[in-house]
Amino acid sequence: MDLNESISDILDSNLLFGRTFYENLFALYPEAKTHFRGVNMHRQAATLTMTLLVIENYRAAERPAMTTYLRELGAQHQERGIPTEMYSPFRRVLLETLAAFHGDRWSDELSLQWSTAVDHTIKEMAKGYQPEREAE
């Protein structure tokens, strides 16, 4: 299995992956719930699922529109009060959820592909944070 097959399985899951991810995130990091007050979690699961598609494609080649999207996503996270320190727990839970979702199809190679893609994405999202907003 490679990243393309992984994302195909996730897209075919009809948001199961996204819902499972947020259940896992809130179970391990209940403080993260504060950042999702008033958020439609069904819509959020869909957003995460589609963002994974961007992450998967972004890894292959840096594209200006994807860079802009990820930086805007970072700015939105900052506006919601999500500190960049939450990205590490997000990364951990995302990779654990991916591994559990794929079961015996998960491999060291797939883990490396996702880790690389997620790390690159987090780096770009963090660039969307504005220092003057951090102080507010």
Rg over C-alpha atoms, rounded to the nearest angstrom: 15 Å
Q: Helical stretch count?
A: 7
Quickly count the domains: 1
Q: Which CATH C-level class is it? A: Mainly Alpha
Give the CATH H-level superfamily.
Globins
What's the mean pLDDT score? 90
Summarize the structure.
The chain is mainly alpha-helical. The chain is built from seven helices and no strands. The N and C termini lie far apart (45 Å).
Outline the structure in words.
It is a single chain. The protein has helices spanning 3-12, 16-28, 41-60, 64-79, 87-102, 108-126, 131-134. It is mainly alpha-helical and 136 residues long. The chain has a single domain (3-134), classed as Globin-like (Orthogonal Bundle), CATH 1.10.490. Helix 2 (16-28) packs across helix 5 and helix 5 (87-102) runs antiparallel to helix 6. The longest helix has 20 residues, at 41-60. It is globular, with a radius of gyration of 15 Å. The mean pLDDT is 90.
Features:
mainly alpha, Globin-like, 136 residues
Could you give the topology of this structure?
Elements: H1 3-12, H2 16-28, H3 41-60, H4 64-79, H5 87-102, H6 108-126, H7 131-134
Helix pairs in contact: 1-3, 2-3, 2-5, 3-6, 4-6, 5-6
